[in-house]
Amino acid sequence: MVTGIVLAAGSGKRMNSQIQKQFLEVQGRPLIYYALKAFEESCVDRVILVTGPDSVEYCRREIVEHYGFSKVFAVVSGGSERYHSVYNGLEAAKGSDYVLIHDGARPMVTPEMINHLVKEVRVHKACISGMPAKDTIKITDAEGIVESTPERSRLWTVHTPQAFEYILICAAHERFREAGCPAGVTDDGMLVEAYSDQPVKMIAGSYTNIKVTTPEDLPLASILLREQIE
Fold first, then answer.
1. Any residues with CB less than 8 A from the CB of 228 and at least 6 apart, and which?
2. DSSP state of 153
3. For residues 189 and 160, is the Cβ–Cβ distance under 8 A?
4. pLDDT, tens only, 45-72
5. Are strands 146-148 and 139-140 parallel, antiparallel or unpaired?
6. Using CA atoms, how far apart are residues 173 and 130, in angstroms rounded to an integer?
């Protein structure tokens, strides 16, 4: 049993919009539509949509039912932090052998990316998608003074989906909660790195798999989605 957990519970403060970013229209569809469509057309068995407490019924009616996403078997409420939302999704995914966790603000995910991760996670148990960094990266101190320059050939930008053996990612989240949920966790791969002995495999995704975070991202997402649709 492979379950996709699609996160759409963020407030989107950096978008400077009264509408939550997952519901902003891009190419005539709400942003969250595109990630759900990719999972619908992939090899996953079922999908859980995690959204804000006030948006659960709206998502059921206006997103899942309206667009006919038959693989979405649950719409659950998220939490104040990303890891709360993931945890709630994992709770709803009981009975799964593997889970893929995806940020709904990445509309350019494709069924092919998802299928590739499903194949790889069966071998490696923990896989994250990303791409080699194109830019030189600097590490600075609190005042912005450069402390070091890591070797670029070993640096990757991390995307979603991220795929895990279900019992592995659940155990990592439980240990994280027992530790008091330390600050600074930005993805689930970090939890597996920190709270398990399981190596995490990096899987090449696509440079087009952008995350829509600020208003400047919307025009690019619109262009990329138009090309994908065409």
1. 108, 110
2. G
3. no
4. 999 999 999 999 999 999 999 999 999 9
5. antiparallel
6. 22
Does residue 121 contact residue 115 with C-beta atoms inside 8 Å? no
Domain borders along the chain are 2-229
Task: Kindly report, residue by residue over 71-112, the tens digit of the pLDDT.
Answer: 999 999 998 899 999 999 999 999 999 999 999 999 999 999
DSSP 168: H
Q: What's the chain's average pLDDT?
A: 94
- Which architecture characterizes domain 2-229 according to CATH? Alpha-Beta Complex (3.90)
Q: Is the dihedral of CA 35, 40, 41, 45 positive or negative?
A: positive
- Give me the pLDDT at residue 24, please: 87
Two tokens, residue 206: 């696509």
Please report, for residues 17, 63, 105, 139, 167, the alpha-carbon distance to residue 27 in angstroms, rounded to integers and kept in the order given: 18, 15, 15, 38, 38
Q: In this predicted structure, what is the pLDDT of residue 119? A: 98
Contacts within 8 Å (CB) and 24+ apart, 58-67: 59/8, 59/32, 63/30, 63/32, 63/33, 63/36, 64/36, 67/33, 67/36, 67/37
pLDDT at position 16: 60
pLDDT of 18 strictly over 90: no
